[in-house]
Amino acid sequence: MAQWQQLLKLDSAHQDQVSQVYHEKFPREIRHYLSDWIESQNCLTAPKLNSGPLLPKMTTRMHIIKNQI
């Protein structure tokens, strides 16, 4: 969560830019709740999200989290 915590400390102008990046693609609330998990992933060796069995699992998790918000 260290990277996410650094983003949260930015001034309001930069916070607006962060919001624009996350707005439609990946809600900030979900990014916040998944920050520990996201930052622990190795992006170089992680499977592609658009293929294989990971996609249904991620989609299900995102729907669960979205419904809890």
Explain the overall architecture:
Residues 2-46 form the STAT transcription factor protein interaction domain. This is STAT transcription factor protein interaction domain-containing protein. One of its GO terms (molecular function) is DNA-binding transcription factor activity. Helix content is 65%, strand content 0%. By secondary structure, the protein is mainly alpha-helical.
Write the layout of secondary structure elements.
Layout: H1 2-8, H2 12-22, H3 28-33, H4 35-40, H5 54-68
Note the main attributes of this structure.
69 residues, mainly alpha, 5 helices, 65% helix, 0% strand, globular
Compose a concise summary of this entry.
The chain is mostly helical. The chain has 5 helices and no strands. 65% of the residues lie in helices and 0% in strands.
* Unreliable parts: none
Helix/strand class:
mainly alpha
Any idea how many domains? 1
Could you state the order of secondary-structure elements as H and E?
HHHHH
* Biggest beta-sheet profile: none
What is the first-to-last residue Cα distance?
19 Å
User: What is the number of strand segments?
Assistant: 0
Give the C-alpha Rg: 13 Å
Roughly what is the average pLDDT, rounded to an integer?
Answer: 76
- Helix content estimate: 55-70%
Percentage of residues in DSSP E strands = under 5%
Counting DSSP H or I runs of 4 or more residues, the number of helices is 5
**What coarse outline follows from CA principal-axis ratios?**
globular
